[in-house]
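Memo to structure team: turn this sequence into structure tokens by end of day. - J.P.
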Amino acid sequence: ADYARKLGFGRKLGIDLSGEMIGVVPDPEWKKKVLGDIWYDGDTLNLSIGQGYLLVTPLQINALTNIIVNDGVLMVPHIVDKIVSARDERIIFKSRPKILIDTGLDQKIFEWIKSAMRTVVTDGTARWGGAVYSCAMAGKTSSAEVMGRETHSWFTAFAPYGSKDKKSIISVTAIVEHGGAGSESAAPIVSEIVEAIFSHSELKTAKRNIWKKRGELAKEKKKRPQDIDRVFTE
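Reply from structure team:
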């Protein structure tokens, strides 16, 4: 739980939008207070893989992705770059770079994680749904279990992988509620957005390609269920 909070979970990140949620990072004290129950070893195991009582927002997952890209550092996220007066073009507001989190963790840890995320796209669960051709992308799929219903589909990614210029790297995160495995619904969305940005194509083209890719994945799953199910299982 301490490391989860250190990486931006269970707190507001200060984005310039109203209604930001902090989510839930459970620990023994939280469970005793909220549920009136003790903490079990199984709760620790569930938390370690992002399951159980943990609640996070897409922004927090995207922030974690940025922490990985920036070797342990997160800047305050902004939607607005600046606000200019329509009357006299005076700058009313200008966002300034500000460090929100500095984990202080060894850079080698993040280099290993980035390499592992690249493997997810090249040889792992996102090698079909997360395919990108205009640049090298790295990412992580996830399937959040929902009792009695289809899982939530998650995918977060950054590109281009291996770039030494951190300012040239983008990160994209998507969740599809009850969308199945991460590679099945969320990965096609993220991959097509990244493709559109780096190939300078229109977003409406990306939207068409998302549905096309999801359709192709569904067909492949029927053709080769044993092979595809292995990819779709996180």
